[in-house]
């Protein structure tokens, strides 16, 4: 049976964990500050042509064009399914 998550829970989860913290501290993706911007190694194309928007809590790779929210980042970095990624983030965020 497929696990279902409410839109409210998913929105809360996507916004409760800083994407910068997730990338650097939790997933341990290679990252750096360059020209005043947080950059990370894209898990899809392995380029550092990336940026994070702290206002929207989203990340983008300009090399491959992939956009990431925290759930997408876990899916790509850990090669988890959607439900595995949500469960992983729920443990970290302690969101109910």
Task: Give a concise summary.
It is built from 4 helices and 5 strands.
Question: Explain this structure to me?
Answer:
This protein is of the alpha+beta class and 96 residues long. 41% of the residues lie in helices and 19% in strands. It contains four helices and five strands, in the order ααβββββαα. It has helices at residues 7-16, 19-26, 70-78, 82-93, and strands at residues 31-34, 37-40, 50-53, 58-61, 67-68. The strands form two sheets. A three-stranded antiparallel sheet has the order 3-4-5. A two-stranded antiparallel sheet has the order 1-2. Strand 3 (50-53) and strand 4 form a beta hairpin. Helix 3 packs across helix 4. The longest helix has 12 residues, at 82-93. The radius of gyration is 13 Å and the shape is globular. The two termini are 21 Å apart. The model has no long low-confidence stretch (mean pLDDT 93).
Backbone structural class: alpha+beta
Q: So how many helices?
A: 4
Report the uncertain regions. none
Helix and strand succession? HHEEEEEHH
- Coarse shape: globular
The percent range for strand residues is: 15-25%
Largest sheet: 3 strands, antiparallel
> Averaged pLDDT, please?
93
How many DSSP E strands?
5
- Report the C-alpha radius of gyration, rounded: 13 Å
The first-to-last residue Cα distance is: 21 Å
Q: Helical percent range? A: 40-55%
- The side-by-side strand order for the widest beta sheet comes to 3-4-5
């Amino acid at each position: 049976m497929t696990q279902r998550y409410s839109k409210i829970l998913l929105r809360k989860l996507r916004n409760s964990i800083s994407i910068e913290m997730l990338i650097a501290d939790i997933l341990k993706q290679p990252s750096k500050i360059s020209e005043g911007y947080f950059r990370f190694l894209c898990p899809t194309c392995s380029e550092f042509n990336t940026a994070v928007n702290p206002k929207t809590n989203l990340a983008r790779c300009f090399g491959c064009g992939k956009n990431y929210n925290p759930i997408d980042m876990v899916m790509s970095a850990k090669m988890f399914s959607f439900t595995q990624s949500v469960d992983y983030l729920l443990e970290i965020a302690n969101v109910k």
